[in-house]
Amino acid sequence: VTESKSAESAGQSGSPPTERVVAVVELLAGRGEPLSASEIAGRLDLNRSTVGLILGALENAGWVARRPDRRYELGVGLVGVAEAVRDAVPLLRGHDRALRALADRTGCGVALVHIGTSEATIVGIARGDAGIPTHVGVGTRLPLAAPLGATVVAHRPPNLRRAWLDTAAPELREDLSAALENIFDTGVAVFALGRTDPRLFVLLAEMSEVLAAHPGRVALRRKVFDMMTALAAAPYDPDRMAAEEPLSISFIAAPVAAVGRPAYELQLGPMRTGIGRAERERMVSELLITARELGMD
Q1: Do residues 235 and 191 make contact, with C-beta atoms less than 8 angstroms apart?
Q2: Which residue in 14, 71, 190, 247 has its CB near the most CB atoms, within 10 A?
Q3: Three-state secondary structure call for residue 231
Q4: Taking a C-beta distance cutoff of 8 angstroms, is the pair 140, 112 a contact?
Q5: Count: domains in the chain
Q6: CATH number assigned to the domain comprising residue 64
Q7: Euclidean distance between CA atoms 141 and 133, whole angstroms
Q8: Helix (H/G/I), strand (E/B), else coil: 233
Q9: How many whole angstroms from its chain centre is CA 45?
Q10: Range of the domain at 38
Q11: Residues 49 and 65 reside in one and the same domain
């Protein structure tokens, strides 16, 4: 039995056929270049015959197209799906330019995340000189667990806020509950970096990207995201933010309204220590300007 077949068999129980089809489409979308059936099989730890059946079905639906060199790319049949998604979920047209401008002004990585009820989906990324690990690309789905999505959750009903708080470590829930009230009033959350080395976030992000390409690794990927979440500290309260002393900051977040209610979180990631009050205030100001620019009424 080959190594790839063993990996596939190990993940069979948690990787139904639908999940493998989704993995193929996501792989082609994320790579941005055509891939052969053997390349797809290798990257997803699937056998060649399985990939051949999936590609055949997707080609019949127009979701993929086979080039003369026998490599595959996304097909025009997905255009209708994309239009339907735009109608169902407002994707903040023109956000790429705004994210890039914010990254340029601050030198930090920027991410725009759609916050659902149980998942968060990255819909835009701008790579800065430092900051939010951008090895996780557009379309990556994350389990919605505190503190991710705090600025959007702060505007949701009490039952949804409680469910979100229940995903946090018990010792953080009281601080996060108070943070939701502060976020509702101030419109921004500034998260501490704590004692965590920023390089650990980058390493975990790289691991999650590798695991995302393997449909049989769902459980392990979830553990990586849980670890990333566990490393995040609670947001600073307004008094601490107003202090003159330098602070460590992992990321700063603000909600972005879509059709009258916050549905997205805009994140700016300094991921460093020793940020003085003036620089903190400038980062918050730049973030809020972009959040208002992206907002949809």
Answers
A1: yes
A2: 190
A3: helix
A4: no
A5: 2
A6: 1.10.10.10
A7: 15
A8: coil
A9: 23
A10: 3-81
A11: yes
